[in-house]
Write a structure and sequence with these properties.
With 523 residues, the protein is mainly α. The chain folds into three domains: 212 residues, Growth Hormone, Chain: A; 56 residues; 248 residues, MFS general substrate transporter like domains (Growth Hormone, Chain: A, Up-down Bundle). The chain is globular, with a radius of gyration of 24 Å. Helices cover 78% and strands 0% of the residues. α5 runs antiparallel to α13. The N terminus and C terminus are likely disordered. The longest helix has 40 residues.
Length: 523
Amino acid sequence: MATAAAKASAAPAKAPYLIAFICGMAAFMEVLDTSIANVSLVHIAGSLSASRDEATWVLTSYLVSNAIILPMTGWLADTIGRKRYYLISMALFTGASVMCGLATSLPMLIVCRILQGVAGGALQPVSQSILADSFPPAQRGMAMAIYGMAVVSGPAIGPTLGGWITDNFSWHWIFLINAPVGLLLMSLASATLHDSATQIEVQRRRRERGLNIDYLGFALITISMGSLQIMLDKGQQEDWLSSDFIVACLAVFVVSTVFLVYRELNHEHPIVNLRLLAVPNFAVANLMIIAMGITLLGSTLLMPQFMQTLLGYSAFDAGLVMSPAAVLSVLMMPLMARLAQRVEPRILCTIGFIGISASMLALTTISLDISNTRLVLLRIFTTVGLSFIFVPIQLLAYIGVPQHESGSASAIINLMRNIGGGIGISLVTTYLARSTQTEQAHLVDRVSVLDPVYQSSVQTLSQAMGSEQLAQASIAAEVAQHAGTLAFIDVFYFLAMVALALIPIIWLSRRARPGATAPEGAH
């Protein structure tokens, strides 16, 4: 019976590429909603009579609820059934999206975004688990590649699409567009998806022993992940440890995380199976996933910000610069999946991180007169490095993980990527702000009212502008622009060094033959 069940669970789905489309689109829809509202905050604040700071809770509420539910998704899928949980999450996500679009006040929008984040938390990890089960072991790299298309392209396309929709229609439609997509995916998923034999067996065992819900574990996850996400999202705004609020969030996070780790390692039926981190490859892969989140979202945030704040690009124009790289990443993922069947994943990851480091160093050549074409090429260079990493890391992560734990593994992997993304955004935002202040101080030191060159420049500009004050303001603005450019260069140097420093960690994982999946005994 056990052998028959194992064989049944290992059998590929009848329509794996249709399932891949469903899961890829569901993951893409969820990833898109983490960034699509960023460029619409000013419109949302004005429409709902709120300040810009108050409107940022539209982003924070989604990220916090998403971070809280992510580690629980494996347990929830195994408890109520993967397909049932997936369909419930799709329905709730679609419904919450519609309510977000129809919101008439900021509190209502924030509550709806919380519901959207709770539902969206399942779409990424459960999609990944379904893909891993739907493809035979030899093609599992292709499944991860399809998933990678959604995860890598979503953050790049989100701001562009959000800016275009907001400019041409209204901010309400950045949420309402989820409705037809969600309904289509729900109908396809209902007809196509089926729980594997392994999943059915896990559910049967849980019903037999009764639901031993770890309520304390639920509470600790909520407190730990919630405080971490709020700290990362509000840290720079509150000036980090200078703020009592951020210090309190840090203290709550540390204490609750220590208790959470102790609780989950000692509980008979943990909500988050942290014991999986004892598998060497899984532990190393998660470190790499955090690093990938830092570099992916860090660089994805920096380039549009540079274009919009210093070069005068609109959100839509900045998105157009990012789009060719997003398209290339979609095209490269299947190629990387085939390459992963022939080349050891550790080698591919090393090439990827070297590529990311080289691309970050190339970005240090930016200037205020950089051409649009050069920006496109620099972004493409970064994407090539990331493409070499995503699929091999996913393959490394599942080697040695029992198949019945694939849901828990996917939940942890996606949680780590989200944490890495949050750290990356906070890190580069803080570094950029501090570096801008430092560079501006250095440049201002060189602009002296006693300097003959400065006096000559002021005199020339005064004659052209008709006012000495306007001339001085023009020089101050130019100094600020150059300081900002130097600050971006500093951050790109920093990310390049981070990518290089991470390469040795890859080789702590055990050697995996090309195309390998989990050992037979793990299934």
